[in-house]
Amino acid sequence: MLECKNITKKFGDFAALDDVSISVPDGQIFGLLGPNGAGKTTLIRIINRITIPTGGRVFFDGKAVDDAFVRKIGYLPEERGLYKKMKVGEQMMYLARLKGLSKAQAEAELRKWFVKFGIQGWWNKKVEELSKGMAQKVQFISTVVHKPKLLILDEPFSGFDPVNAQTIRNEILRLKDEGTTIILSTHNMESVEELCDNIALINKSHLVVTGATDEVRARYGSSQVELLYNGTLPEGGKTYKVALGEQLRDCSRSVLDIADGLAMKDVLSELAATDIDVVSVRRMMPRMNDIFIKLVSESQK
After folding, report:
1. How far is the C-alpha of 116 from the C-alpha of 90, rounded, in Å?
2. Is residue 64 domain-shared with residue 157, that is, in the same domain?
3. Percent of the chain at pLDDT above 70?
């Protein structure tokens, strides 16, 4: 659906983005990752036409984006901002009308969202009376009320308690199921593992890696096996070394690093020759947090 081709953005001699290309599949959640100052927000602003690239182009549904394209986007920036002296309902109506909804459409859609989030009693209250979490709910509603084809969320869970964060997660997944394409920019790697179908990692203005989330985890994560057993496990062998060991109530637990080029079956063959009694064994998927740290560190070298 969305393609950013060879995007470069310079501010004087400083390159915020240097020849970055990403492709966001239709109807999926795309994680845009990177440390602070990597260039993520600059790319998001270019997609939104808040700023214009120095080089490269952005395409939506195969067509170069223009100003009319912005109405098809819902954008929740990391820097939240509402007019504090306005009433909540009045401000939401104003923002919905800016996205092309008629007065009747805007009020009908907003009322549904207010009921869904349990904030219908706040329609006539001033924005400055809202708690931080309540204000973030209101801004999320303003981002999705016009049913955008492309939804861009920059740290959408920031400041939410676990219950409300899960509410937003559920809505993101529901919107995806309804066909919305979503770009999620976040530092929360658990959210990436839970929500994102594809990712791109940017560091110091360059694209480090992009691809399907599971493929990136398989390609760059270390191969590990969780072993539950009774007996004494050798610290290492030809196929593995023990990365972590602990004693549980009924058995021992160890995490084994598999040697390069080998598979779990090779480890099992070696373990079969030991005196341990295996209770269970499972392949461990590498964590996105570990891969993120590894790739960023390597790119900085």
Report:
1. 18
2. yes
3. 100
Q: Is 79 exposed, middle or buried (0-12, 13-18, 19+ CB in 10 A)?
A: exposed
pTM: 0.83
Name the region of 205 (left: φ>0; alpha: ψ -120 to 50; beta: rest): left
Q: What is the pLDDT of residues 35-85, one digit of tens each?
A: 988 999 999 999 999 999 999 999 998 999 988 888 889 999 987 788 999
> Residue 5 is encoded by which pair of tokens?
């081709």
pLDDT tens for each residue of 95-120: 999 999 999 999 999 999 999 999 99
CA dihedral sign, ordered 166, 171, 175, 177: positive
Instruction: Say whether both 69 and 200 belong to one domain.
Output: yes
How many residues can be counted in the chain? 301
What does the pLDDT average to over 7-30? 96
Residue 149, domain CATH: 3.40.50.300
Same domain, 259 and 191: no
Q: Per-residue b/e over 190-227, b at no fewer than 16 CB within 10 Å?
A: ebbbebbbbbbbbbbbbbbbbeebeebbeebbebbbeb
Domain contains 141:
yes
Count of domains for the chain: 2
Q: Is residue 291 part of a domain?
A: no
Residue 267's domain spans which residues?
222-285
Q: In terms of domains, do 86 and 235 share one?
A: no
